[in-house]
Amino acid sequence: xxxxxxxxxxxxxxxxxxxxxxxxxxxxxxxxxxxxxxxxxxxxxxxxxxxxxxxxxxxxxxxxxxxxxxxxxxxxxxxxxxxxxxxxxxxxxxxxxxxxxxxxxxxxxxxxxxxxxxxxxxxxxxxxxxxxxxxxxxxxxxxxxxxxxxxxxxxxxxxxxxxxxxxxxxxxxxxxxxxxxxxxxxxxxxxxxxxxxxxxxxxxxxxxxxxxxxxxxxxxxxxxxxxxxxxxxxxxxxxxxxxxxxxxxxxxxxxxxxxxxxxxxxxxxxxxxxxxxxxxxxxxxxxxxxxxxxxxxxxxxxxxxxxxxxxxxxxxxxxxxxxxxxxxxxx
Length: 331
Description:
The chain is of the alpha/beta class. It contains 9 helices and 10 strands. Strands 4-3-5 form a 3-stranded mixed β-sheet. α8 (about 300-310) links the parallel β9 (about 295) and β10. The protein is elongated and about 130 Å long. The N and C termini lie far apart (about 115 Å).
């Protein structure tokens, strides 16, 4: 049998029913053409579905990857919040000598302190730890040791906060020029000295405004029966009547302890005497000279304690005897 070979036919020719594969030329019926057309359409649909599945799978993969790399703070806060970590409050207090009394944190709901990293360079050196403080890995805010958490901090702002009155309190951190002043806003009417009212708008109040509506600080003069202004005037009168004797008593003491014509002055009462002990012991442990320090104790117990610590004292009975022995209480 003699065969003649031809080039493969185009799809168009196939659709027209022309087929050359042998010496015998056959013409497809209209039914065969329709069947072939349906097969081609089905093939094109399958190809499009495959493409769509590939795109969808890629999108899901990218979405899952982005979820696992969600930043703890968005880029809109990158100038002042690039990561966050927890540190045990008690360990942080042991590691840094903050200088003020701190209540123990364990079991109080204040066990951990929060550290916010203002810049990426302030985060810990370890790459995995730095990643954990920056991105949400599903394990919550990482708990670090104080040394690790602060090892790259060239400076650190420390804010002590509580919730006096157990109110529905919030804290706002605002990126701006550096400020070391904390504003306080409350839903109160300062003109009427009202207590907190959730129907009122938040407005700026003084540091001494209490949630119950009482202003603890008064601008003199004031004739209110709750005002301590007149009582303070009486104490000032006592001081002015005795100031000449006080200056005379102080002169030889100051001449003895002054260093380069400078004296460090402190005051303490019995309720805060533990702070004086802590200060004196910490300062000497660090090699500081306390020889030019003068303590004005407000009671004889504190005078004896200060002198026992090797500090110079001056007790003015006329002015100090009316001051309470106890420490200040939290409002």
